[in-house]
Specification:
The two termini are 64 Å apart. Among the domains are: 159 residues, PAS domain (Beta-Lactamase, 2-Layer Sandwich); 153 residues, Histidine kinase-like ATPase, C-terminal domain (Heat Shock Protein 90). Helix 8 runs antiparallel to helix 10. The chain has 470 residues and is α+β, with helices and mostly antiparallel strands. The protein has 10 helices and 12 strands. It binds adenosine-5'-triphosphate and magnesium ion. The site of adenosine-5'-triphosphate has 24 residues, from helix 8 and helix 10.
């Protein structure tokens, strides 16, 4: 990119500098010739004026002397030509002027004879050198007296031309050098943001999503940079989310494996003991088989809970649009839990203002309520009290399940709804808990677009409040 910009700009610079130098050199040369011609013309006129005055005073003119003197003064060759083309005098030839050809046919003389003055740029056949000639007629009393010609050696003009050429080349070189330096700086300045963008994109593709570009070029490059930043931000979030999901999944799998292993180990252990002869004692056999039955039930519950969670998570839903009679469901659960309630002498108080219905999957709703009420029973002390209160507002149904049981210490509350989270593992396991109940509740509440909150004080009791939109 940088090389392309440099090649392009340097070629443009070279071409334009070459063209301008060429043109300016030739224009300068032309104007130099014009200027010199003008000078020669005024010399001719001055000389003519002097001769004219002498003629008017009736002086006899020594043209040889005049040619020499004027030539010395102006530093150029001076020739006087008669009207018929014969040479009167020539500063360069001196006495030898008599050998010079008739000049009638010389370009400047012809032009002077025609128009009063003439100029030409040609080689002198007398001297074999190139001269710039200017000739002007001298007319006295309406009669052409002579033609004064002043000539300058082209060599001298060429010398000036060389000087001009030299100056043009030097200034072109300086100009090119400056322009090349500027274009290198410009190319660097132009490609720097692109380089930054490339580095940034490379970092992103290498997995560094925190890389951000920040430059203010106020153009499309800045826009591109900002777009890349947004893309990196989005990728970052997506990757983080994926990693989080992956961690949760990994943790879940590890937990599931662990939780399944515990009852399985226990079952295998007791079965082996029985095989080893323990089954001969009927009492021991009964005890062991009972334990195996409890562990198997626990295993079954665990598997059911795991399946329930994955079902809810994957969104596999059945019977979504039933009108659920809230009171009926709660009564069914209380009946189901009756044996434990009676055994622990727990009082259950329910309060429904009137019949309340809610749309949704009845099985899921029941599962949620069962988990909450079962927990209240499970974690209640003997002679405890459980209150179930259902209220209805315009948009919501609020269901409170409150107990005065063992309560939950504050530090456990934020993690309560996580899968497999149990406050007291040994105690919870003793009462048959898997730690999935509240996770399932949370999932079902979300399915109903509702929310759940818990208030608890250790040793005093716990209150769960579920709010579901109607
Ligand atoms: N009403 C409550 N009173 C006191 N502690 C509770 C109550 N409800 C839940 N907990 C605590 O929260 C933990 C998580 O409850 P969760 O229902 O998820 O699991 P669990 O009851 O142990 O097992 P299960 O999956 O069989 O329900 C419980 O282990 C218990 O320590
Ligand atoms: Mg539970």
């Amino acid at each position: 990119m940088k090389r392309k910009i440099l090649t392009l700009s340097i070629s443009l610079i070279l071409i334009s500098v070459m063209i301008t130098s060429y043109l300016s050199f030739h224009l300068n040369m032309d104007s130099l010739v014009d200027q010199k011609q003008g000078e020669l013309l005024s010399y001719c006129k001055l000389i003519n004026k002097a001769i004219e005055e002498d003629l008017q005073h009736g002086l006899i003119i020594d043209y040889g002397y005049y040619a020499e003197t004027f030539s010395e003064q102006i530093g150029e060759r001076v020739t006087f030509v008669k009207a018929d083309g014969a040479i009167l005098a020539d500063s360069l030839m001196g006495e030898d002027y008599v050998n010079m050809d008739n000049h009638k046919n010389r370009e400047e003389i012809q032009k002077a004879l025609e128009k009063g003055f003439g100029a030409s740029n040609r080689s002198s056949s007398t001297l074999g050198k190139e001269f710039l000639y200017v000739a002007v007629n001298l007319v006295d009393n309406g009669e052409l007296v002579l033609i004064t010609r002043v000539a300058m050696e082209i060599d001298r003009l060429d010398m000036m031309g060389d000087f001009l050429k030299d100056a043009a080349l030097k200034s072109a070189a300086v100009g090119i050098a400056i322009a090349i330096i500027l274009s290198i700086i410009f190319a660097f300045w132009l490609t720097r943001p692109i380089k930054t963008l490339v580095e940034h994109a490379r970092k992103i593709s290498g997995g560094d999503y925190t890389s951000r570009v920040a430059f203010q070029t106020e153009d499309e490059l800045q826009e591109l940079g900002e777009t890349l930043n947004e893309m990196a931000e989005k990728l970052h979030l997506a990757v983080e989310e994926m990693e989080k999901a992956e961690n949760i999944r990994r943790e879940f799998v590890a937990n599931v494996t662990h939780e399944l292993k515990t009852p399985l180990t226990s079952i295998t252990g007791f079965v082996e003991t029985l095989q080893d002869g323990a089954d001969e004692n009927p009492q021991i056999r009964k005890k062991f088989l009972d334990i195996i039955a409890v562990e198997t039930a626990r295993l079954k519950r665990l598997i059911n809970d795991i399946l329930a969670i994955s079902d809810i998570e994957s969104g596999r839903e059945v019977n979504t649009d039933t009108d659920i009679n809230v009171k009926e469901v709660i009564e069914e659960i209380i009946n189901f839990l009756e044996p434990v309630i009676v055994k622990k002498s727990i009082t259950v108080k329910t309060h429904y203002p009137y019949e309340i219905y809610i749309g949704g999957n009845r099985d899921r709703f029941k599962q949620m309520m069962l988990n909450l009420i079962e927990n209240a029973v499970k974690y209640s002390n003997e002679n405890g009290m459980i209150k179930i209160d259902v209220q209805k507002t315009e948009e919501m149904i609020n269901i409170m399940v409150e107990d005065n049981g063992i309560g939950i210490a504050k530090e456990h509350l934020p993690r309560l709804f996580e899968r497999f989270y149990r406050v007291d593992k040994s105690r919870s396991q003793k009462v048959g808990g898997t730690g999935l109940g509240l996770a399932i509740v949370k999932h079902i509440v979300a399915l109903f677009d509702g929310d759940i909150k818990v208030e608890s004080e250790e040793g005093k009791g716990t209150k769960f409040t579920v709010r579901l939109p109607i």
